[in-house]
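Aggregate trends can hide what the representation actually does to any particular protein. This step matters because it turns folding into a mapping between discrete strings. For completeness, the protein is quoted in full, as a sequence line and a line of structure tokens:
=====
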Amino acid sequence: MTFEFKNIITSFQKANKEGLKAVVATLVALNGSSYRKPGVRMLIFEDNTMVGAVSGGCVEKEILRQAASVFKTGEAKIMTYDGRYRLGCEGTLFILIEPFNPNDEFITAFEKSVEERKSFQIKSFYTKEEGVNKHFGSYISFDNKQWMAFSKTSKIEEKEQTALLLFEQNLKPCFRLVIVGAEHDAVQLSLFASQLGWEVVIISSAANQQTIKDFPGAKELILKDPNLLKINWVNQQTAIVFMTHSYAKDLQYLLAFKESTASYMGLLGPFNRREKMINDFIEHYPEVETAFLDKIYGPTGLNIGAETAQEIAISICAEILSVTREQKPDFLKNKLTAIHS
């Protein structure tokens, strides 16, 4: 959701320069099931253009209609949407629609938070009754101390808001995918991962002549040999896929990341290649802990019958999601409980 909120901020800044007013709609509560879970947002401009979505498409038309009064009065409101007959999800959505006009301090703090890869918090005040209330609204904090309103005309009024319901959200930094390698399949993986909102970093040898433009969606290209690579920026919000197509290079780069805390590491090639690489890795680094080795997946990707580079990229991204979200891959038709916990 951090990636979606980042898109909202970027779109607001562009529209604000053109003098367009904006409101933001947030799914703050849900009774039953829905396409998306609470916390998802969309931005609406006064020219009826929209950025993002809170569901599969049906709800957005009603939000657009309801947003007209918020543009007119400047007061936040709650709308409800019964999806039993229109979405097929058997859920009632409670959506907060409010003016969105953050001040410069808000924008600067957000951009700094994204650049430094820090979490931030959002809280929204609402009720489960349709209507307008001047105390409805959302606030953001980058240190859990100072809170800034979504609209620079709003003020936190704690006494009045204690009677309202509170939706709280902690948004982590965008997930990061490190691709070690620069062949054709790395280009495809970069493209698909960026579509998921992941920050993609490409690593290749110093002799590589490619540029960042050769990798659609990638944020950074690092041309460093393994012995010169610094990994202090790798954390648990990071997955690494080794795909140089060279056993020796993959092993050297894997050794370069031996102290990293990445949540997932994937190796191309068959099972026997993975076993050989782990054995050689241990030869070079015998003090390695079992927990590190358990994070190495090879062959990387889920077994979905992938053949092309694009299909393999989807397979890899799907496995990374299943591992980092702690989900066992299965058909959703076999899931007897709610899709979203």
Remarks:
- The first helix runs from residue 2 to 17.
- Residues 176-324 form a domain with the Rossmann fold fold (CATH 3.40.50.720).
